[in-house]
Specification:
heterodimer, A: Helix Hairpins, 3 domains, five-stranded mixed β-sheet, 41% helix, 17% strand, B: mainly alpha, globular
Chain lengths: 328, 548
């Protein structure tokens, strides 16, 4: 017994630590609190499966532990044989049939919940949004031509239909509170829907390895009243697109002030002020001595690029001191 | 024997201490080479895992760069799957199959040696990729295009090419080994060893080999197309004319059977160890043997459950959900039969038995978390999150690795003639068991909280940080357990000599224990006629019945 003491202490410490953090919220024992009907129904299916699997877990591990304790050696010699039982057909049939029944039950629950998870509720005017996964940001196209980066604004309570696409590599769209995920696959548009039950900000991030900055490809959905949403797509989105592009796209590699980071410092680079040259790099990418820049602005409009140039000229670009040569 | 051969033949360079291993075609030596090489990669892949856990221990860490993190995760996965689990099982198969069926060697000894050297070469090629232009491969062990394509912003350089080349070499190695196993098992069984008297490990190796033959062509085709895309400008996987989903289907058509390739032989080992240490026959031999075949069959029909989030039609999703759930039934049968094997036994809790029981406990957990993932609407939430990382580590580490460590402790005396130390063995088991659960249990929670896999850092504190830290501490405990294992080997063979094993230290059931430990080159002077699935027990009883 003394030999098992250290592991026993460790197990107790682990249990205490787990209980402690778990008490702080739902503890990660169920998916993130759902705020959209599809996520709620996924949660229901999760609970049902959790119920069945917990019961199986208790029975199987319980039997295992009981047998280990009950039939342990207790000083018997190695040559002492246990009961020479070769099998029991009826018993084996029972433990074949019971799992089949349990799996059928789980299957039925899944198929009952499925339409409520998969099919968007009928709606007169769902908000149709194109979500484009790029290295390393999410771009949203709203009805009426507005565009935003990183943060998606939606009206609370409206059915939102997402058309998820990608121009470069596979990404995966995932906001846990608003339902499941779907891959953004080049050449293969996918659909997903959600309906934010209440106003708020819902966070998520890209779930499919998409390159060096995979971990920085964050996404946020802001659900707000209809009026604010309309304001956003008619005015705010257009006014702030330059800033969004800088901080959601350029700053990831070049730093918030263009001071450099993974990518080279560009705050002093005159290229920033030349719309046509910049357009070429954004559209096609660029391979330089320090590595390759992805074509981050593939599909950007002229208006978008002018907005970026305007923002950068005002806030980022600093002419290099006389005599210095521009890098990169 | 040795004396006679020395008298007849002059001692050539081939008999040298090292050279004899280089030119060997003896299945036992090849098996040991396989196992030793796999364990070396296991340590290397484990160090990569420790690097990742160090990077993720706290938020916003800068222990690894994001570039090297992606290389490390790709190499960890590829190494553990292709250079550790698959080949170590081939190693056990090589050592054990001829001994268990009472044969002199594998059917094609030279081909067998070629398989091993190809495996070693494939591993070296993979690890050389670190030094290639552009660094190691960094598109994950799936290497999904277009991230694995030769675009400047995807996978330029040659790391990915090395990965492809290595997989080709390893596939060839596995194909040759698979053919060899099948021919050996079909043709070289001892007199009296019918299919229903064959050790369950041999059943498992037969199934392992068949699955390899069926699954490997798909991955070979996929990576060949990827190589052509990368080097000669084809567009198999590049839109608008190519399809990224084609790669995913081909990859997982191989990838899911691969999971069973990595676990069925371990099921076989458990089915050998549990009865011996329960002093009982396996409960329901036929059920265990046939459920192996059932699992193998259904494993060919479940591949797209890895692709539930690619936007497949719901009809297909449903098919793959049902087929994935069906596979839980034969797996459940095995688990219940194993537990029933301990019922009313005389359980001898030596190290091999501890690992076998640990396997049953942990694999059950991995099986149960798999049911959540099979239910595709739930998978839409859990796919590609840390929940999946936790799930497959319960299957492949809690399952396969606990199983092969059990196998190592069990067959070590047969391989080397000396026992490993029991006390250290038990330390190894308990540290690994606790460390494993500490590492991977919290990862279920991380996935449910919304942590995707393969991110090199995260910004959240609170629960994310707590669970990640717990997981990193656990990985350190596991590393310690492996150090204990290596110390055990060193003590038994270097520092002090371990206890001599004798032919049959565990009073086991199968033919490999009939010969000496370690067995002579030709394995057996004679093989007894096999009258049941437990020939050694039959023999012991016959001896006991003889008048003194």
């Amino acid at each position: 017994m003394r030999r098992k003491l250290p592991s026993f202490v460790l197990v107790v410490l682990l249990a205490l630590a787990t209980a402690g953090v778990a008490a702080a919220s739902n503890g990660g024992f169920t998916p993130v609190t759902p705020e959209s009907p599809n996520a709620s129904h996924t949660q229901t299916a999760y609970y049902v499966i959790l119920g069945f699997t917990s019961a199986i877990f208790v029975v199987v591990e319980g039997l295992l532990v009981v047998f280990i304790v009950k039939y342990r050696r207790r000083g018997r010699g190695r040559a002492v044989e246990g009961a020479q039982v070769h099998g029991h057909t009826r018993l084996e049939l029972i433990w074949t049939v019971i799992p089949v029944l349990i799996l059928c039950a789980i299957g039925v629950v899944v198929f009952v919940e499925l339409p409520k998870i998969n099919d968007a509720p009928a709606s007169n005017n769902p908000v149709r949004i194109t979500v484009e996964g790029h290295q390393y940001y999410w771009q949203f196209d709203y009805p009426g031509g507005a565009r935003s980066i990183g943060t998606l604004h939606v009206p609370t309570g409206a059915v939102v239909d997402l058309n998820v696409i990608s121009p470069d590599v596979i990404h995966s769209w995932w906001i846990p509170a608003l339902g499941g995920k779907v891959q953004a696959i080049p050449g293969h548009p996918n659909h997903l829907w959600f309906k934010a039950n209440k106003p708020g900000s819902y966070e998520g991030q890209c779930a499919e390895l998409c390159g060096v900055y995979h971990a920085s490809m964050l996404a946020r959905v802001v659900a707000e009243p209809q009026q604010s949403y309309e304001n956003y797509i008619s005015t705010t989105a257009r006014q702030t697109i330059g800033k969004q592009e800088w901080s959601g796209v350029c700053a990831t590699c070049h730093g918030n002030l263009g001071q450099g980071g993974y990518g080279p410092a560009i705050a002093n680079n005159t290229l920033l002020t030349q719309q046509s040259a910049l357009e070429g790099i954004l559209e096609n990418g660029f391979t330089g001595t320090q590595g390759a820049m992805p074509p981050v602005g593939k599909g950007w409009t002229n208006a978008q690029i002018s907005a970026l140039v305007a923002y950068v000229k005002k806030h980022i670009y600093k002419a290099a001191p006389l005599g210095a040569t521009s890098g990169g | 024997m040795a004396a006679r051969s020395e008298a007849v033949y002059p001692v050539g360079w081939k008999s040298g201490r090292i050279a004899s291993w280089l030119v060997t075609v003896d299945h036992k030596r090849i098996g040991i080479l396989y196992i030793a090489t796999s364990l070396m990669w296991f340590v290397a892949g484990g160090i990569l895992a420790l690097l990742m856990r160090s990077q993720l221990a706290t938020p916003n860490e800068h222990f690894l760069t994001k570039n090297s993190y992606n290389e490390v995760l790709t190499m960890h996965g590829t190494t553990m799957i292709f250079l550790v689990i698959v080949p170590i099982l081939a190693g056990f198969g090589n050592f054990l199959v001829p001994l268990m069926i009472g044969a002199r060697d594998m059917a094609f000894p030279r081909l067998n040696a070629l398989s091993y050297w190809l495996f070693l070469l494939g591993g070296i090629v993979l690890w050389l990729s670190w030094f290639s232009k552009g660094g190691g491969p960094h598109a994950g062990w799936w290497s999904y295009p277009t991230l694995s394509e030769n675009f400047p912003w995807a996978s330029p350089g040659h790391g990915q090419d090395y990965w492809i080349l290595s997989l080709h070499i390893l596939s060839l190695s596995s194909l040759l080994a698979a053919i060899n196993f099948i021919v050996t098992i079909h043709n070289m069984r001892a007199p009296g060893m019918t299919w229903m008297r064959m050790p369950l490990f041999v059943w498992a190796m037969e199934t392992y080999a068949i699955l390899l033959l069926l699954a490997l062509p798909a991955i070979s085709a996929a990576v060949t197309m990827l190589l052509l895309d990368r080097t000669v400008g084809t567009h198999f996987f590049i839109p608008p004319h190519g399809s990224l989903l084609l790669y995913q289907h081909l990859f997982w058509f191989f990838g899911h059977p691969e999971v069973y390739i990595m676990v069925l032989p371990v099921f076989g080992m458990i089915s050998e160890i549990l009865p011996v240490f329960s002093r009982k026959p396996i409960f329901g031999y036929k059920a265990v043997a046939f459920s192996t075949i059932g699992i193998a069959f259904f494993s060919m029909l479940v591949w797209a459950h890895h692709m539930f989030t690619t936007g497949m039609p719901v009809g297909l999703d449903s098919f793959f959900m049902i087929s994935s759930m069906v596979i839980a039934v034969p797996t459940g049968i095995k688990i219940f039969n194993w537990i029933a094997t301990t019922w009313r036994g005389n359980l001898i809790l030596d190290t091999p038995m501890l690992f076998a029981l640990g396997f049953v406990a942990l694999f059950t957990m991995g099986g149960l978390s798999g049911i959540f993932l099979a239910a595709f609407p739930v998978d839409w939430q859990l796919n590609d999150s840390y929940y999946v990382v936790a799930h497959f580590h319960y299957v492949l580490f809690g399952g396969s690795a606990f199983g092969f460590f059990g196998g190592l402790y069990y067959w070590w005396p047969k391989m080397f003639g000396r026992m490993l130390d029991e006390r250290l063995g038990k330390w190894h088991f308990w540290l690994m068991f606790v460390g494993f659960n500490l590492t991977f249990l919290p990862q279920h929670m991380l996935g449910l909280l919304g942590m995707p896999r393969r991110i090199y850092t995260y910004h959240h504190g609170g629960l994310w940080e707590a669970y990640n830290l717990m997981s990193s501490i656990g990985s350190g405990v596991m590393a310690l357990s492996i150090a204990v294992f290596l110390a055990n080997v060193w003590i038994a063979h270097g520092l002090r000599k371990g206890v001599r094993a004798g032919n049959d230290p565990w009073l086991a059931d199968t033919l490999e224990w009939y010969t000496t430990s370690p067995p002579p080159t030709h394995n057996f002077d004679s093989v007894p006629y096999v009258t049941s699935a437990r020939p050694l027990r039959d023999l012991r009883r016959r001896l006991a019945e003889q008048p003194q």
